[in-house]
Fold this sequence. Notes:
Blueprint: H1 5-11, H2 19-31, E1 37-41, E2 54-55, E3 65-66, E4 70-73, H3 75-81, E5 84-90, E6 104-107, E7 119-122, E8 126-129, E9 133-136, E10 147-148, E11 159-161, H4 169-177, E12 182-186, E13 190-196, H5 212-222, E14 226-232, H6 237-248, E15 253-257, H7 268-274, E16 278-282, E17 286-287, E18 293-297, E19 300-305, H8 309-327, E20 337-341, E21 352-362, E22 365-370, H9 380-384, E23 387-391, E24 402-407
Parallel strand pairs: 5-6, 13-14, 13-15, 15-19, 17-21, 20-22
Antiparallel strand pairs: 1-12, 2-11, 3-10, 4-6, 4-7, 5-9, 8-9, 16-18, 18-19, 20-24, 21-22, 21-23, 23-24
Helix pairs in contact: 2-8, 5-8
Bound molecules: ligand LQZAQKY5 and molybdate ion (MOO).
The site of molybdate ion (MOO) has 8 residues, from loops.
Amino acid sequence: xxxxxIQMSVHDFARxxxxxxxxxxVLAHARQTPQPVTRxxxxxxxxxxxxxxxxxTSARPPADISALDGYAFxxxxxxxxxxxxxxxxxxxxxxxxxxxxGHARAILTGARIPAGADCVMAVERMTLGAGDQVAPAxxxxxxxxxxxxxxxEFGAGDVLVRAGQMLDWRHVAxxxxxxxxxxxxxxxxxxxxxxxxxxxxADAPGACADSNTPMLAAMLGSAGARVxxxxxxxxxxxxxxxxxxxxxxGTDVVVTTGGISVGGTxxxxxxxxxxxxxxxxxxxxxxxxxxxxxxEHDGRAVFCLPGNPGAAAICALAFVQPYxxxxxxxxxxxxxxxxxxxxxxDAPPDTTGFIPVSMRRGPQGWHFVRVPTAGASDIIxxxxxxxxxxxxxxxxxxxxxVAWAIPLHAPSALA
Length: 415
Ligand SMILES: Nc1nc2c(c(=O)[nH]1)N[C@H]1C(S)=C(S)[C@@H](COP(=O)(O)OP(=O)(O)OC[C@H]3O[C@@H](n4cnc5c(N)ncnc54)[C@H](O)[C@@H]3O)O[C@H]1N2
Ligand code: MOO
């Protein structure tokens, strides 16, 4: 279909944009479409993005406290008298009475320092003698020793979590230390992944298993999206249109794979245009992934990824993931990794080539090593690689020089 001259001007890739332009358009759209805010319990906050900055409501420690189990006393008294009688015991959670003049106080770790004391020594460094007198068994500690001072970690009003911070156990600990039980976060983007093509039917003569739907659900789900999927094992326009309309219902983002090139069964663009969608860009000068097309439908982003699984993965990593991050208020490129390239690569003019690389630790640090790939349909290259390097005429990869890459997995999975 659409073999005519006029039709081709909409459908072909003559007006494709370059990588930087496409990414800029993707991120600009995300910035003008912020996610609503919701509150989640701290136990469910990992992987969510803080909607606002959170400030400390109280200092930490909230008072001067003992770092040890031992005895608290006035340094000058111990220096003058050599030993001091013990006037009692203070434990964590107490509000201790002031130290009786010329006395020591038994004190436990985390307990408040009684007024009048300015030094703590560990119990194993002191001897307790007749008449409940304590004396240093070793050299007397310095004044101020073994006291954790009020606010030495942070003060009331200090920023504990920045807006846009991806939360994990570190922030959970900080917020819990303030008595907080929940936190305001951006709602998880609701994504529908829709694959299409008659070859996806199990009984098709040349059946092809749908790997794109599970792949993208896994990738975008681990990037924080709430993903639902739909596999349309047909090239029928009416059926695909019905599923695309359903995909748009109740979602923030729609991701399609397949049916976006210029073949006779590539219907995604026509269906979306008929639904009133607007083209943001049609095609990108990247390899693989050239047919990647972005539309906007009723305010939501619709990303049409090529059906070739390797190309679909690259477009999702390079564009959809940053989109989802920015949508939730997180920085777009928080996940880039750098290392020294151990190979050189140029890209054809006006094209950005994506190169899978593995990361190897050498005596001088980490290196990017090229992973062979069969191209746009290749998915095994990704499981042999750790990151994805972008090479262009302006930014060629040069052996011995530092390069930046999009990681394919969490750093803990590095061999
Ligand atoms: N005349 C031109 N033809 C093509 C061009 C071009 O510029 N001019 N671009 C080529 C490029 S580059 C790509 S990439 C493909 C993209 O085509 P589509 O996005 O329309 O994808 P399909 O044709 O539907 O499928 C391509 C390929 O991928 C397999 N596939 C599809 N869906 C899935 C899935 N869910 N899971 C696994 N594999 C899937 C499908 O069987 C095909 O082998 O267009 C070129 N053509
Ligand atoms: O750009 Mo296609 O995605 O190379 O096969």
